[in-house]
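Q: Hi! First time asking for a complex rather than a single chain. Here are the components, and I think there are two in total. Is that enough to go on?
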Amino acid sequence: MFWPVPMIEYGGDIYTEFQRHGAPCGAGIEITSACNLDCVHCYHARSEGPDLPRAEVEQLLRDLAALGVLELTFTGGEPFSRPDFLPILRFAVVELGFSVKIFSNLTRISASTADYLAEFPLNRIETSLLGHTAALHDALTRRTGSFDACLAGIRLLRERNIRVSAKTVVMRPNRASIPEMYRLARSLGIPFRHDDGIFVESGGGRKPLSLRISESEARRERKKRGWREAGSVPRACNAAKSVIHISADGAVFPCGPFPIPAGNINLQSLESIWRNAQIMRRVRSLSDAEYRVCRNCRYRFWCNGCLAMGMGLAAGRKYPCRLARMRLRGVL
Amino acid sequence: MPVGLGDVLRPAPNVTARIVGGEAFVMHLVSLRTFSLNETSTAVWLLADGIRSAGGIITALMDEYEVGEAECRQTVLDLLDRLVEEDLLVLAGSHD
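A: Yes, that's all I need. Here is the structure of the assembled complex.
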């Protein structure tokens, strides 16, 4: 056999590399649909069945590793609400070698949990700060004490050198507090980011959209932050190309916010869904050129070509969005 | 110190790899640095199993590929040095 000189390359966009091989690089798992908060903007109302039992979650993790997945994000619900989350997490990192991120509200982090998490390498834990004061944050999570608990959780993790970052969604009630939230994050020693993307509830409910700031305000804010102007033509994303998402009851989606499942691991193998499910294949074959239909769409400012968000925004108004209508014809 | 022919190497703790389309993607779980290996580097990576020596890896590769001993030895030892430098492989022992 021909001998190509052994080469090693550092960095690069591994998600693109994985796409070249038709393999997922990143996976999101809603490890539970249970959550102890009731955030006003939450779009998760998806799981129809009970959470997958631990043995099935572990098999799912093995299947994801076999498909090639390297980066895993545990989300929910609130992952730490699940009683067996810690051993599942250890299994994912120590036994299967995933680089793991956790999206958590950090209200359930005790010193002993933080000690446990420090025993193996985590990519990072990401939390949401919805305000810079307890009054504002707790009003938006609709749980008294959630702000103080979150800050305590951040401190416990940082004391153990676990990477933590925070984010917020800009909404009408917290729009004036963004600079203070950045200051708070700095004082906690963690990175912070914000965005204005609010999704329609996974069941189709549009209530979260009422929290959205105005388009002119969002435009000013985006300009200030140097974000891509919505006037530019959107491009195809990683959904179903190098990203896959599984809900708490085993439903499989092209990405986290995507509203329609491609299959369920209780009925089909994960590999079969990834390779053969019609929705996966249609989303996967979406090319940059097809985004031309977004140019004159009224929703583009907010979705910026995100198929999942666009479908939600257009729901009930000649559902779905033009891009989805074109790409998912016969599937929806 | 450069890797010698008798050195036995294995993946470092906290390093993970996935083989996709015949190529290895290696990630250090602490530094979060990622590396992609071409086909021959992947073969070297898989042979660095904590049992074979560097010399054993070279012999195995020469059985598989059309390559002269000198070239194979040089390029494989260079690669192993680089993988050790990047904390992706560690010395597990020596057959010397």
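A: The first strand of chain A starts at residue 8 and ends at 10. Let me know if you'd like any chain examined more closely.
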